[in-house]
Amino acid sequence: MKYRLYTPGPTSVPESTLLKLAGPVHHHRTAEFRETLKQATALLQYVFQTTQTVFTITGSGTAAAEAGIVSTLAPGKKVLNISNGKFAERWAQVCKAYGIEVEELKKEYGTHVTPDEIAAKLKSSHYDAVILVHSETSTATTCDLAGIGKAVRASGDTLLIVDGITSIGAFPFKMDEWGVDVAITGSQKALMLPPGLGFVALSQRAWSAVEANKSARQFYLDLAKYKKSIANNDTPFTPANTLIEALLVSLNMIKDETIEGVWKRTAANAQAFRSGMQALGLKLFSHTPADSVSAICYPTGISDKDFRGQLKNKHNVHVAGGQGTMEGNIFRVNHMGYSDAYDTLAVVAAIEHVLNKLGHKVELGKGVAAVQHELAKSF
């Protein structure tokens, strides 16, 4: 069976990008690398929908998030962290590790905060920043980021720090228009690369906070160093230059399709997959689903070990399990990046076979037919 990857990170990498990775390793302190980084940075601005510089960090999305948080917030600053999943909870842990005061607004897994809730909190107390995950990967849940951005800006000088790791490049994310001050993503999601690069962009308001932060304690993740180097289209430390060369290939694919085209395709595939699951009688976990990844509740009597084991061992189809408190209760399927209509059909067909094999009888082809009806709207 062909290897089919449906995990929400890492995601499938296009063949053209893989071929670039198979090429010779070049030296990174050269005019050629600086030109590659310059072009990649411009295309990242297009994907982020920003005029601000997007910095490329050799590290994971967590490295980019830590850089954005610690560069803008000094110890003793106060943040409102929206905690509604495993990754949202991670940012609270980062803040606490650096002496940043954290108040957590806890939401049930599968739900998200609303603009009105944010506005109410900002009226009740002053916060130096609001930190949230636009697309909580662990629960496949998104929020009204445009509305939240408006609420935060109305509060005055509070920064809006957003984990866009499974939203940027997958569904609408407009950094400048929506008033996002720190935007973060990683290479192994919608940008169609292996893990290894993190990306972070800061608004002018965020840069004012960086300049006022005299107690920043990071070294490798000091964004002031990256800002100085990017003036010469370079990096302050050794970059994963082979990944950056491959990044340019993937970003040009996005540019050719257009970011709006990517958003439309991802949404169509997500809707088609969910229609297939509902036709089989399976329930979505999230109350506000993200288009980048879907979370599906297991039917009674189906174990995570058996279900994902059968998909992997019999069909070579790889999906993700639940995380945190949802471990064993849900499975998650990716729709972002290098994923098309026929990938969607394939995973639903495999799920039908596995459910039947495990004794949860479904009508073969019923889920696939629902997918086909949805996909027909795209052709």
Rg, rounded, reads 21 Å
Could you say which structural class the secondary elements and strand pairing correspond to? alpha/beta
Task: Report the portion of residues in β strands.
Answer: 15-25%
Total number of strands: 14
Note the run of SSEs as H and E: EHHEHEHEHEEEHEHEEHHHHEHEEEHH
> Could you estimate the helical fraction of the residues in percent?
40-55%
The second-level CATH architecture of the largest domain is: 3-Layer(aba) Sandwich
Average pLDDT, rounded to a whole number, is 97
Which topology of the largest domain does CATH recognise? Aspartate Aminotransferase, domain 2
Low-confidence stretches: none
Individual helix count = 14
CATH superfamily of the largest domain: Type I PLP-dependent aspartate aminotransferase-like (Major domain)
**Amino- and carboxy-terminal Cα gap:** 28 Å
List the domain count as a whole number: 2
The biggest sheet amounts to: 7 strands, mixed
Strand order, largest beta sheet: 2-10-9-8-5-3-4
